[in-house]
Fold:
Amino acid sequence: MTHANPTILPVRDFTPSHFSLAVTGKVATVTLNRPERKNPLTFDSYAELRDFFRALQHEKEVRAVVITGAGGNFCSGGDVFEIIGPLLDKDTAGLIEFTQMTGDLVKAMRACPQPIVAAIDGVCAGAGAILAMASDIRIGTAAVKVAFLFNRVGLAGCDMGACAILPRIIGQGRASELLYTGRSLGGEEGERWGFFNRLVAPDDLLAEAATLAGRIADGPSFANGITKKMLHMEWAMGVDEAIDAEALAQGMLMHTRDFRRAFHAFAAKQKPEFEGN
Structure:
């Protein structure tokens, strides 16, 4: 298992061993690609995903991310034989080292300035449900099954930030139901509950996610990064504190060239070309 801080590489030079990465223009697409097992995670894939999202914090050219799974499923969670079995032989220090490492993946997803669009079909369970939850936007299909399975294997629902993040997406009562029972959340119910932004046909899923990510990437990327940071930071703020923090952030952004570009484009009745500065 890799725990050392990674050498920061440009994302275009990042060569993953445990997932597929494609960079098209300003959008990076991460594909979990063990389709024969419904794309489970291993110790190494957890760590490599963490390192990738950490690298995004230093990446200027990639401005949005799509995360998806191969073969009609998103992610079945931690691999039963490659993770859960070996965990039974670890001592307390080793187990906490593992749970902190998996939590660091969620921290890295939330800390990277690029908005993350999850394209979710089929099975989305356990740690896979967490990856979906940690994304900024979720697009699903009617056939998707999202399940926070932790209590079904004798563990608590408080895994990788679920008790903090999930209630903020779907509400405390609904999150409590999913975390206490481990039951599946279907696509249509998930859309009604606000877990999914929208549902599309399976054949349209990746294209829809890529189109949305591209639209975001064409926007003012520095400003979008501030929006993401403030959405995260303001969970711990009162309303007055949040208003003050937003005033400072917006005042800073009024110094950016993208703000000037938008004004001049509006005056010329043109579409602004944002450059992220």
